[in-house]
Amino acid sequence: MANHAINPVLAELRERIGQLEGGPQRARQVLPFGVAQIDRALPGGGLLFGALHEIAGGGGGTVDGAAAALFVAGVAARTPGRVLWCMTRPDLFFPSVSQAGLHPDRVVFCESDREEEVLSAMEEGLSFGGLAAVVGELVRLPMNASRRLQLAAEKTGAMAIVLRRWRRQNEASDYGQPTASTTRWRISTLPSQRLPVAGVGRARWLAELMRVKAGECAEFEIGAPDAKGRICLLPTAVDRADQTARWRSLAG
Amino acid sequence: MPADKPLVVIARSGSKRWICAADQSALKLGLRIGTAASKAQAMVADLLMVDAAPAEDAAALERLALWALRQYSPVVALDGADGLVMDIEGADHLHGGEARLISGLVNRLRGHGLTARAAVADTWGAAHALARVLAAETTVVPVGEVKRAVADLPILALRLPAEIVKGLRVLGIDTVGQLSAMARAPLTLRFGPEPARRLDQMFGRLAEPIEPIRTPELVEVAKNFAEPIGAPETIARYVRGLVGQLSARLAQNGLGARRCDLFIHRVDNTRQHLRAGLAKPVRDPQRLSKLLCERIETIEPGFGIERMALVAVLAEPLEERQVASTLIEEAVADITPLVDILGNRGHRLFRVAPVASDVPERSVRRIAATAPDIGEAWPVKWPRPTRLLANPERIEVIALLPDQPPAVFTWRGKRRKVVRADGPERIFGEWWLRPREFQAVRDYFVVEDELGERYWVYRAGDGIDPQTGSHLWFVHGVFA
To answer: Is B99 on the interface with A (CB under 8 A)?
Structure first.
């Protein structure tokens, strides 16, 4: 919305192009994060329903995809309706996901033997309608496959989320390849929120918005989803050096 | 019937009485199938003897076959007096593949107190022999491997008459491999065509169709074609027609189909079948035909199809229900059709539900995707990792015992310095369920390394008493 407000001429042009293209007739719904800075960076003011979003982890998260999975769970928790979660490696530990506000009754898992079957299951789930979001854990996402998912999502208005998860960390360079996704995120872990006592605080992530259609890339330091799946901004870059120094003194 | 006494079943023919079946404890005492009843009585003092009832056995086997027909495969038949044969092609995907299907079958039979052995092979003959000869409970022979798998089996497994087996033994032939290496002509001259025929059936050179059992209460519709058909569009059209007839018949009886079998008879007298499973009873023609038409590409029409039959092999009562519509609430969409579509493609669909257990790997169970809502989630507020490793992985650790978190640990060849940690969270073994875990303890720690990556590590044991565990350290999960 912010982009539109800044330049009314552009907004009008966009609207006219949209009419010419005769795209989806109904108003596209969005799922705002509830954090003003992040929502401002996304056209429409949030993650679009009926669109494909790509999310991957950074560092060790490229292989385990833990932070990315919890980020997805936080998004899915705030959607209304059921969620289909397709994967080949069933290692998601649901007690953690349910702490992010996603109730186990809302999630149907679909375990497949091969990657291509995950894609077909996702497409079937998206074109079924009646699901709020369809999540798929994938290694590869070719352009054609992503376009099919995007089209299937557009038709029913379900949110398609691809969680990219590689076998090895160096394979993650594949993430630069173009796909038809509307947004592309990378979630990497940061040292957790500082506590006044020794211990591990709320998890903090660096959420990089690497690509967004009709928008600009951005980076946010966010806190992991709370019990309702809401993230928040936690920019504490200032005291990071200070923290390690404190720990060095404790250790020494 | 006391369970601790050895039990044998006695068959009789005229005045001759012999053992035709014996339980484990009787076999241990040296009783064998074929021992005379009087001799057995002399050998074992308190032997329980039951008269054989072949007619009742056959009836029980037939009941079992009908059960298997509903549960496992569209083509089930009796195989001799002691076995069942099923054609599971086109039906195993509903059970997660061949190996899962037969291990599940054997386990379910065990649950009913039956000892069973099962084998999957390319041909009826091979599966028959493997199930009866091998000691393993389940055997799966990969496609095309039959020749190697049966080479060492005794010729007794070939379903030959007893005198032919005896004659072959006289010639020094004991195994299927030896028999198949022999020249055909002299073999046929001496023993007739039977050995060669059985060998060909075993190796799949001779077709051996299974004539499936049927009961009158199955709802079945069929279509014969004057001219054989073959094009996928034509097949799809007739499948839709058959589904329409079937749902009309189901509606008459107030039933809905849970499993549907499509039989395709080809002009060259071979048969193919497809099975579609449904999570809940359905008689909506569109949904049923979508499930069947999706798999038309797996049908090989060959020279043409002359007959198609559609059977609702498992049908359950389906009542029409009135649904109140409200303007305020948006009804939650029923996902059963999606579950059916994906399930019939061989995906495993499930939901997870909490289990009251502190041990992390036991705190989650899988339930059916269409099960009613559980309503509750995990009550723990302790931090739990997003990814749980299937098997905890050993790590090398430097830590102060008994209750300090590790200072440094090495996992997957990478040394990580622990910057922050929380714990321990002590989890005790469930001695009320598993007596071996009476003293077992795990101490879990949340550790964070310099990059901010968080792991769930635990020490087996409480750090003081070696009885409680090995004091080795493991990574069990990765936090987000």
So the answer is: no
B80 φ/ψ sector (left φ>0, alpha ψ -120 to 50, else beta) = left
Distance of CA B410 to the CA centre of its chain: 41
**What is chain B's pLDDT, residue by residue, as a tens digit (480 residues)?**
666 788 888 888 888 888 888 888 888 888 888 888 888 888 888 888 888 888 898 999 999 998 888 888 888 888 888 889 998 887 888 888 888 888 999 999 998 888 889 999 988 999 999 998 888 888 899 988 888 888 889 988 888 898 999 999 998 989 999 888 888 899 899 888 988 999 998 988 888 888 888 887 788 899 999 999 989 899 999 999 999 999 999 998 888 888 888 989 999 888 888 888 888 888 888 989 888 888 888 888 888 999 999 988 888 888 777 766 666 655 667 888 899 899 888 889 999 999 988 899 999 999 999 888 888 888 878 889 999 999 999 999 998 877 889 999 999 889 999 999 998 899 998 989 888 888 899 999 999 998 889 999 999 988 888 888 888 999 999 998
Hey, what are B464's tokens?
């003081």
ipTM confidence: 0.84
Does B334 reach chain A within 8 Å, measured CB to CB? yes
Name chain A contacts of B422, Cβ cutoff 8 Å: 199-200
Q: Measured in Å, how far apart are chain B's first and last C-alpha atoms?
A: 58
How far, in whole angstroms, is CA B205 from its chain's centroid? 28
Q: How far does CA B306 lie from the centroid of its chain? A: 33
A positions 115-144 inside 8 Å of B (CB): 117, 120-121, 124-125, 128-131
Q: Which of A200, A221, A234, A236 best probes binding to B when mutated, by most B CB atoms within 10 angstroms?
A: A200
Q: CA torsion B100→B106→B112→B116, rounded to 10°?
A: 170
Selected residues 179-238 of chain A with any CB under 8 Å from a CB in chain B: 189-192, 198-200, 203-205, 224
Q: Residue B335: which of A82, A96, A203 has the nearest Cβ?
A: A82
With an 8 Å Cβ cutoff, are B385 and A66 in contact? Answer: yes
Does the beta-carbon distance from A131 to B333 stay under 8 Å? yes
Q: Do A124 and B407 touch (CB under 8 A)?
A: no
* Cβ contacts of A224 on chain B, cutoff 8 Å: 480
What is the interface size between A and B, counted as CB pairs within 8 Å?
168
| CA-to-CA separations, B356 to A102, B139, B353, B374, B432, in angstroms, rounded | 19, 36, 10, 13, 13
Residue-averaged pLDDT of chain B: 87
Cα separation of B475 and B455, whole Å? 7
Q: With beta carbons less than 8 A apart as the criterion, state whether B318 and B312 touch.
A: no
- List strands edge to edge, sheet with A107-111: A232-233, A218-223, A204-212, A183-190, A52-57, A159-164, A131-138, A82-87, A107-111, B348-354, B364-367
Give contacts of A198 with chain B, Cβ < 8 Å.
420-421
Distance CA B44, CA B26 (A): 9
Q: Do B364 and A121 touch (CB under 8 A)?
A: no
Nearest CB to B420 within list A109, A124, A192: A192
The alpha helices in A8-128, defined as continuous H runs, are: 8-21, 36-41, 61-64, 66-77, 94-99, 115-128
Q: What's this model's pTM, rounded to 2 decimal places?
A: 0.80
B350 close contact with A: CB closer than 8 A: yes
Of B4, B29, B31, nearest to B20 by C-alpha is: B31
According to DSSP, the residues that pair with B124 across neighbouring strands are none
Classify the C-alpha dihedral A115-A121-A127-A132 as positive or negative: negative
Is B164 near chain A, with CB under 8 Å?
Answer: no
Q: Is the dihedral of CA B450, B451, B454, B457 positive or negative?
A: negative
